[in-house]
Amino acid sequence: MKELICVEGLKKGFGGQMVLTNVNFSVAQGDVIAVIGPSGAGKSTMLRCLIHLEKVDGGTITVEGKPFVKNGVYESPAQIKQITSRMGMVFQSFNLFPHLSVRKNLTMPAMLANGQTKEQAEKRAEELLAKVGLRDKIDMMPSTLSGGQQQRVAIARALMMDPDIILFDEPTSALDPQLTAEVLEVMRQLAAAKMTMLVVTHEMTFAREAANKILFMCDGEIAEAGDPKQIFSAPKDSRLAEFLRGIK
Amino acid sequence: MNWSDILTTTSALMQGMGVVLILFFAVLVMSIPLGFLLTLCTRSRFAPLRWIVNAYIYVIRGTPLMLQLFFIYFGLPTLGEPFVTIFFDAMTCALTGFALNYAAYFAEIFRGGLLAIDKGQYEACQVLGLNKWQTTTRVILPQMIRVTLPSITNESITLIKDTALVFSISIPEILHYAKVAVSRTGSVYPYAIAFVVYLVLNTILQFVFKQLEKKTAY
Question: Strand (E) positions, A79-232?
């Protein structure tokens, strides 16, 4: 499978405190990777570095063969933007635009940043909202939707840009179990449709069932990587074994 | 006092209405964009620009508007050209003074408005590929206006009342005509009518802004 993302020697600190000490992994096309680990392990920071919401202190991030940061040295802003535009992101707190209707949340960025015409964007918005089960909410304002519905709109908005990979930063952590289930259902559908996804999550059932690969992060590095079966039933790293015992 | 006296005095006071309305609208139109520009300057990466604009806001907010008007109208022309020509007309002085003054207050209001906007909104814009201009005009500004609308209403009410200050640089407005009417009639009721005129203006203003708040609610 084609390699979409390659991360080598990623380092990142905040105020002298190293959050990522040495992160290495790669994502192939069609991969559904769940990133698990204790709080403060650096999972979200790692994801944010991948899409340039945080600046790395060292390491190389390559997207579809093109590095936008090489050994800690960044390419030009235009090139970074071009390279990272192949990725979409879904946030824990949804981050929908509260002053715009669901329709405009989807069409505005697609028209402004992705060059879609109004007709194309509208048609695509309707299709994607139907896909996440919210076709009837198209003219609602985000504040009138439940958290789960807002997150599904956020997923549809990310899909509007036709990304090659979507990064999910704890997409269900702000939701109650019922709403979590509806969001995970949409993510399962995406996984089944071979969408490449990198998901930071505390939902172990989702990680076990929907992911084809698990990254266990601890102390700023990937302590163990493997397929779900091996990770959950035969952990090698003692910290992973302890983490799994703790969540059972 | 009878109805015809009230009518005569009210219509006399109305001669000052034009000045009040011109000042009000012109100052709002000038100071709101200028205020936003100042806010952007206080967030600039270029430190000297930040210092200059912060010092400007500090001085303007820390000194009386009447002093600023006197400085422009009576003070600057003593420095000779080009001030003599530019600030010859009292209305020009009033508009300049008010716009510069209110811009400083609006800058602070907008600064608060921007602080109220969640960091996640900027991040969402970035990952969706919107550039800085698109982020500011399509996402940040509309939300900032919504957040700051109550404060803008407040500032506008103050502005209507502050227009009475131009009386001090000899521009005839409502207060001027009220004072003339008091001298002429030897009675207090022209002042009472002036109270009512300002109240009516502010009632209309508050109604309009309330509608605007409802319209921009989300």
Answer: 87-90, 165-169, 196-200, 213-218, 221-226
Interior CA angle at B173 toward B168 and B177, to 5°? 100
pLDDT at A108: 96
- Residues B109, B154: one domain? yes
Q: Please give, rounded to a whole number of angstroms, the shortest distance from the CA of B18 to a CA of chain A.
A: 36
**Residues A188, A195 contacting (CB under 8 angstroms):** no
Helix B189-216 with B141-162: angle, nearest 10 deg: 180
Distance of residue A235 Cα from the nearest chain B Cα, in angstroms = 35
Report pLDDT digits (tens) over B136-191.
999 999 999 999 999 999 999 999 999 999 999 988 889 889 888 888 888 888 89
A123 to chain B, any CB pair closer than 8 A? The answer is: no
Q: Look at the block and give the residue holding tokens 């969640």.
A: B118
Last residue of a domain, one of B149, B169, B189: B169
- Asked if residue B177 and residue B95 are part of one domain, the reply reads no
In which domain, by residue range, is B85 found? 22-169
* B124 Cβ contact list (under 8 Å, min separation 6): A91, A95, A96, A97, B139
* Cβ(B42)–Cβ(B50) below 8 Å: yes
pLDDT band at B1 (very low <50, low <70, confident <90, very high): low
CB-based contact B120 A143, cutoff 8 Å: no
Is A103 in the B-facing interface, judged by CB distances under 8 Å? no
Q: Which of B169, B186, B210 is the last residue of a domain?
A: B169
Other beta carbons less than 10 A from residue A239's beta carbon: 17
| CATH of residue B102 | 1.10.3720.10
ipTM of the complex: 0.92
- Is A235 exposed, middle or buried (CB count within 10 Å of its CB: 0-12, 13-18, 19+)? buried
CA dihedral B47, B61, B110, B106 (to 10 degrees): -120
Dump pLDDT digits (tens) for B44-56.
Answer: 899 999 999 999 9
Residues B133 and B156 both lie in one domain = yes
Residue whose C-alpha is closest to residue A97's, from B138, B145, B137: B138
- The total domain count for chain B is 2
Residue B204 to chain A, least CA–CA distance (Å): 26
Among B118, B130, B218, the residue with its CB nearest the CB of A113 is B130
Residue A102 touches chain B, beta carbons under 8 Å = no
- Chain A residues closer than 8 Å to B146 by CB: 99
Distance in angstroms (rounded) separating the CA atoms of residues A27 and A8: 12
